[in-house]
Design a protein that fits this description.
single chain; 187 residues; mainly alpha; two-stranded antiparallel sheet; 43% helix
Length: 187
Amino acid sequence: MADAFPFIGGRIALNFVGTLGKRSTEKLERLRTPDDLARWVELAGLGSISTDEADLEAARVLREALYVLTMATLDRGPLRRADVELVNERAAHETPAPALAITRATALDPKALGRRDPQPSASEVLAVVARDGIELLSGPDAGSIRECEDPDCTLLFVDTSRSQRRRWCSMNNCGARAKMRTLRAAH
C-alpha cells in the first residue's frame, strides 16, 4: 500500500515526520483524515485516541515544525524560532501516565498487579512526539540523523549502523531500487 505508514526512522519523532512522504516530488500525505492520525497513533504503540479536524491540523503543524528543525540540524535549512517555540509548547502538555492495577483478588498471587494504561488525548500523544523530538534533536543521536539518499524518498532515520554510513531508509525498498538502477546502468 503506497500510503502505508513507514516506521523506519528509529524514533517516534522521525516516524511522525515520515507521515508526509516524497517531500521533493508529489508530497504523499498520509495524514489525510482524523482517522489516519488515530491509526498512526495506534500503530506507533502510543495508545488509542479519538481525533477531530483540529487535532489533525495540530498534528500536521507539529510534524512540519519537527521536519524543519531536523533539516536545520542537518544544516539543510534555516533554524526558525517559531518552530522551536511550537515544539516546546506542544511538549509542555501533559503526557499519559501508566498506572498499577490490581488484577487478581488476592495480594498473595505474584501476578496480582498489572498495568493500566489510560486512553490518551490527541494533545497528550502530540506531547509525547514533541518530547521525543526534543530529546532527539538535542541529544547524542542528533549527529546520526540521515535522510534517505533515494532522490524520490525524503524519509529521515537515525543511523545506528556500526560504520555510521547507512544511506537508505530501507535496504528492502530504496536500497534495492538503487542497486537495480546501478545494475541497469552498468548493462
